[in-house]
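Homework help board

Subject: predicted structure for assignment chain

Our instructor gave us this sequence and asked us to write out the predicted structure in token form, then describe one feature. I got the tokens but I'm not sure how to describe them. Can anyone check?
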Amino acid sequence: MARIRCGGKKCKVDGCSAKAQVRMYCNSHYMKGRRNGDIKQINFPVKGTSCTYKECNNKCYSKKLCKNHYWNIHFKDKLFDICGGKKCCKCGIEDFRVLQFDHINGGGRKELEEKGYNMMIIEYIKNPKLAKKNIQILCANCNWIKKHENNENRNGDK
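My token output:
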């Protein structure tokens, strides 16, 4: 793609004071637009703007979302889809606010301590067969009942 000369102007993203390099964007914003989709429709979040998710007022992280909503939408949703959707496999509740990922045979605390939450989720997204084998979706109540019945607590065997 041929570079369009910008004549020393500033990047056209509000709040960015860097010199425009390509199509009136600084190199950083231009490359971010190329990675995230069609460069003709770049719509970068402005520094200092807030998350566009419902009534969230947290600072933008990426794609007009705060870090928490970006994570939930892009990663946790993928794992929910792999594991059968946003529904408790015991009682059937579909309120995503109470749904949790549960290790079917226990051992979740150990895996969490070894890998960390984000890396554990990403590993299961990369390996859906492993996720289907090890993970199920439970609501908070069903998860605590299962933990109690199977003695899956800090002092338990699992």
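Reply (TA_rk): Your tokens look well-formed. For the description, you could write something like this. The chain has a mean pLDDT of 81. That's the kind of observation they're looking for.
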